[in-house]
Write a structure and sequence with these properties.
This protein is α+β, with helices and mostly antiparallel strands and 136 residues long. Helix content is 35%, strand content 29%. The protein has a 3-stranded antiparallel sheet with strand order 1-2-3. A two-stranded antiparallel sheet has the order 4-5. The protein starts with a strand and ends in a 12-residue tail after the last helix.
């Protein structure tokens, strides 16, 4: 399986602006800019999208881990905060709240630790990055 997204940027880094479009068109020419990334401007930004990806992936992986352990969650809510310091992503903080009937705290913690270590986005944050660049 492969998924795609496209970014288009016009102008300089600080004064320019861009848009993001995903394969599903859930994001369709969604605006982003210096202000939406580093201030409180209108639009999205890469760190917000990483936080959405990590919280969504982790939450689904946790649901699978709980299911493998014999439990069905009523709800799992995960908040993710991505920290960008001096041009580098320095952390991804997951805060999880779940309602899982019949599970012990120890078993829940075990499943959450498994999801944290093994969701694909968690693994991506420690992966090799390759690039192909072409001028057109």
């Amino acid at each position: 399986m492969k998924r795609t997204a496209t970014a288009v940027w016009n102008g300089s880094g600080k004064e320019g602006n861009g848009n993001l479009t995903t394969q599903s068109n859930v994001l369709s020419k969604t605006q982003y800019s210096f202000n939406s990334r580093f201030a409180e401007g209108t639009g999205t930004n890469p760190e917000e999208l990483l936080a959405a990806a990590h919280s969504g992936c982790f939450t689904m992986k946790l649901s699978f881990a709980l299911g493998a352990a014999g439990f069905t969650p009523d709800t799992i809510e995960t908040n993710c905060t991505i920290t960008l310091d001096n041009g580098a992503i320095t952390g991804s903080d997951l805060v999880v709240k779940a309602k899982v009937p019949g599970i012990s705290k120890e078993k829940f913690d075990e499943c959450a630790a498994d999801a944290k270590a093994n969701c694909p986005v968690s693994k991506l944050f420690n992966t090799n990055i390759t690039m192909t660049a072409e001028l057109v």
